[in-house]
Amino acid sequence: MEKTITEALAEIKVIGKRITSKDDALQNALVRSSDKIDPHEANGGSTAYVASLKQGIKALTDNIVAIRTAILKKNCEETITVAGVTKTISEWLVWKREVYPVLSSLYNGMQNRIRRADSDMDSYGRMSQGEDKKSAIINADIQALNNDAEQIAACYEQLDGQLSLKNATLMVDIPE
Fold first, then answer.
1. Which tens digit of pLDDT belongs to each residue from 122-141?
2. Long-range contacts: 12-20, Cβ < 8 Å, 24+?
3. Domains of the chain, residue spans
């Protein structure tokens, strides 16, 4: 059955809720006091009911694997161009999840360190009025650093939009 990636991802959420519901029923049916009547006796008993719930959960988890695999295959085939760079969707997803946070933290850290150094030097200059005012030596091109940080953020935002568009339009074939 063909679905958009967005529909397939929504189906995974629905399956997750169905698994939770079956798990709740399974936990409730798993153990009962010996003085209680088997509530599932007419349908083969609680043992059969528990086995049926377990089988249902397995079928649902198999369905999740099939959906995720179909999405993964499609993401390995399709490409997106962001900021002039073309990569597969899978590669961009790795960049978004693992590379962007590192780069964002790195650039934010450098920018904050420079601001702190400037602030510290200003404070020191006010305290030592008779001495020569000291200044911070920055071992990086501040403008280039700010531009790089802005480009990375813009790339992330553009990627987010491209991924949303692809998820809404790309079709995946999900086995039934």
1. 665 555 555 666 677 888 89
2. 12/64, 12/67, 12/68, 15/60, 15/63, 15/64, 15/67, 16/64, 18/60, 19/57, 19/60, 19/61
3. 2-77, 80-170
